Amino acid sequence: MITIKEEINLYMRDMMIENTILCVKWGDKYDDEYVHKLKKQCMENCSVPFNFYCLTDKKTKSYDITLPTKWDPYYDENRGFFWAYRKCYMFKLNESIDGDFIGLEGNKFLFLDLDVIIHQDLKYFFDLPMDKPYIVRGWWNDIGTVKRNFSKHKSTAVNSSVIRWDRGQLKKVYNEINKNAKLVFFTYPSMDNYINHRWYNIWDEDEGFFRAFPKDDIYSWYKGNTFPDDMETRKLREDHKICLFNNSNFGEGINDDEIKELW
Amino acid sequence: MVDYLRFTPELCYDWKQAVVDVERYYPHQMKRTLDASIPSQLESKLWVVDELKKIEDCFDLQPNIALIGGWFANYLTPLLIDNLNASKVVNHEIDNDAKDISYKYNKRYKETGQYQCLIKDAMMKELDEIFDIVINTSCEHMFPMKRFVKMNKQTLPFNGEQNSPLYVLQSTNNDQYDDHINCVSSPEELAEQAGIVPEYMGSLTLSSGMKRFMVIGR
Q1: Which residues of chain A neighbour B97 with C-beta distances below 8 Å?
Q2: Which of A74, A82, A151, A154 has the highest number of chain B CBs within 10 A, making it the mutation to test binding with B?
Q3: Per-residue pLDDT tens digits for B97-119
Q4: Least packed by Cβ within 10 Å: which of A180, B37, B100, B179?
């Protein structure tokens, strides 16, 4: 039997805006301008109502929500330079309103990295069939290289710059990291590599926990679009949905000017 | 002393076919199969079997052996079956291509049930069965083995005692590769990392120039 409190919760949930766009910002790599520009792009490119939140270590704006810090002791910056583990806190968003993210509303989540260019209506992402969560499959990767380097933890097929999930859908991922944080941060050089190993199946891409966004949805400014036929870099493809600025070959902050010119 | 691999016609056939199939169906893995076939790979596996054979009393029972991250298991499987009379070798891998290719190198043993390869991250979940011997010759690629050892401690059903398989662990101090995420400076450190009491500890410089450490213990 449903309690009055549960009934109120369900009513409140029905009244909420379902679609929620999240970004994560910590440290000094990206300044507030990135969050502002991302929000502006979302407003210009999303034809359905949405909530917007930035999960951050420095809360200054009304849309900011404080990131937890519980995994900090397990993270060794010297060995896990690219381990964006703070992003993984958002996977905790589950069926009930979460103690770590009080005030964060919505049921349909779209995470976007701060350094993206949005070309097309984000409604597309909220309308996807959600039997599985979605993540970027870097179609610009040569799958032979990905497989060859799989056990070396290199040439990762998956990219976490855009993730789409429904509330509760990534709880298993959060729980595994939470239970095994020391092992996970020690073993995998990056969050993308961890997901590639544990939650994606490069040998049978329909069988993984995550589904890949289809080809020609999301491409990379620095790496291209689809291997081997459409690999031109530094090319805008406005018929695609989102352009990423991922490039593990560059150090922190380098080449940021290129996205600023394109904003 | 175990200082050679029995190159039988059956082995010859499987290996030839493995090369043909890798070239045809797994061309992206060609270089890795060559990497797995170099002399130093054989040297380090001969060392495993040679030292295990000296611990004679383990092997009266045709040991059931687990490999952790055994890759193509091209050298170790025949060495263990030929020299230690292993009843079964079960390789635990995370790489599907490695699994498929290992079955090609060891087709004759796959067919008799003496070789099996499972896709399993052995650091995340305990093994599915009880093994007499657990061999990990690539500890430098993994989290310290103490976690695995603790996770796979078995309680004997009759007297409630804790039972542990015999562990054979190899690692190196060579940290020039990105995927060598857990190098050690000595066999003592390797034993300490695994939390096992060593019955054997040693070092060996391979023909490739890489220094390897090995501990055997429970």
Answers
A1: 147-148, 150, 203
A2: A151
A3: 999 999 999 999 999 999 999 99
A4: B179
